[in-house]
């Protein structure tokens, strides 16, 4: 699939910004010189998040098109369920008993 090639490797990476914001506030309360360093970390994390979002599959598809795709897939699932039930009811898959 083409979407799998663009999928980022680090799927489980944490993109929580609150710990970084908390560190910045702590540095500001202490009047520390580390505020710029913490701000740089926050900027880097935001940029990394933007890059991850940009390569997500389907990001370029409008919500209306996504909704249509979802409906199509639901219809396919329903059809396949019906066919599966039909074939199960035909009893063609009975295994002969070994004597």
Provide a quick synopsis of the model.
The protein has helices spanning 2-6, 18-29, 35-54, 63-89.
Describe the secondary structure blueprint for this structure.
Blueprint: H1 2-6, H2 18-29, H3 35-54, H4 63-89
Helix pairs in contact: 2-3
Task: Kindly describe this structure.
The chain is mainly α and 99 residues long. It is built from 4 helices and no strands. The protein has helices at residues 2-6, 18-29, 35-54, 63-89. Helix 2 packs antiparallel against helix 3 (35-54).
What keywords describe this structure?
elongated; 65% helix; 99 residues; mainly alpha
Mean pLDDT: 79
Q: What is the strand tally?
A: 0
Q: Tell me what portion of residues adopts beta-strand conformation.
A: under 5%
N- and C-termini, Cα separation? 47 Å
Chain oligomer state: single chain
């Amino acid at each position: 699939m083409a979407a799998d090639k663009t999928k980022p490797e680090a799927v489980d990476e944490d993109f929580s910004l609150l710990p970084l914001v908390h560190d910045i506030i702590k540095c500001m309360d202490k009047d520390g010189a580390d505020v710029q360093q913490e701000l740089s970390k926050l900027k880097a994390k935001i940029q990394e998040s933007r890059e991850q979002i940009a390569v997500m599959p389907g990001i370029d598809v409008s919500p209306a098109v996504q909704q249509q795709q979802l409906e199509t897939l639901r219809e396919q699932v329903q059809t396949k369920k019906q066919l599966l039930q039909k074939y199960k009811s035909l009893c063609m898959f009975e295994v002969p008993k070994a004597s």
